[in-house]
Amino acid sequence: PGDDPSNYYQEPDLIRDLEFPRDKLSLERVLGRGNFGQVIKAKAQGVGGADKPMTVAVKTTKDGSSADAKDDLLKELKMMKLIPPHPNVVMLIGYCTKTEPVYVIVEYCALGNLQNFLRKCRSKRDSTYANIQVDERLLTPRDLASFIWQIARGMAHVASLKIVHRDLASRNVLIDKNKVCKISDFGLSRDVYDTDNEEYEQKTQGRLPLRWMAPESLFDHVYSVKSDVWSFGITMWEVLTLACTPYPGLSPPAMMERLRNGFRMSKPVHCNEEVYDIMRKCWEDDPEDRPTFIDLVRLLEDVITKAE
Ligand code: ADE
Description:
It comes from Branchiostoma lanceolatum. The chain is α+β, with helices and mostly antiparallel strands. It is built from nine helices and eleven strands.
């Protein structure tokens, strides 16, 4: 069907029936633990008819976790099944749902999450602020621009499917061995076809990613592709500071009060005016005034080509 994701959208269940035989998985070690779940590195035998086992990541609930945790994992799987493969979105490889525990099998991203990766790449001399050195082992401004552009491309794909991610942040972007960034963690995401509206009204309060949230999400519980664009702006800021915590020095209530009064984070040191301008557009008060992810991909391409 070509590059246009909408061509794949017709019957996602038909093209993505990926129930995988559990006995063809050998679990190796825990990669990460969250509140309710864990991710385990594993080898999967026979993916797509291949002879060689494939290294994968298996997302599952922890022993003795609640019915809610299992529900959340199944919801995340449901979302992932709607997403046709894209290089900048973590790919669903399969799942084991016939018996418990449920496994969601996704592609393995050897460099882990972008937040940890960026923090590890900080120079030893200056660990508080991004100190980008021209050193092959460290990240170049070009790498950082590329990460941001890739995240925008992944989100443009997600947004084209009318899926609102609701938790875009560098901790939820994975990075593979070729330094390709992949949007991950669809645990909080919602399909706007669930409602009749472009915007999703949140009904229950869980733990919220306050520092990444748009004002309309913080104050009115409204989520949309445009609130994902706000979070993208915060994620850009994280990349350019090598993953400092947004609104440094401000407590959540202080941050919210400042936001209400129109305060925005200042330009990171290693960021040019043009890139800061893009970030600021993501933080427009009126969601309609923010760019789309398609706009962002184009704006970032302009910046990258000009820098060459
Ligand atoms: N941590 C969480 N998900 C992961 C993945 N797919 N690959 C590597 N590390 C991970």
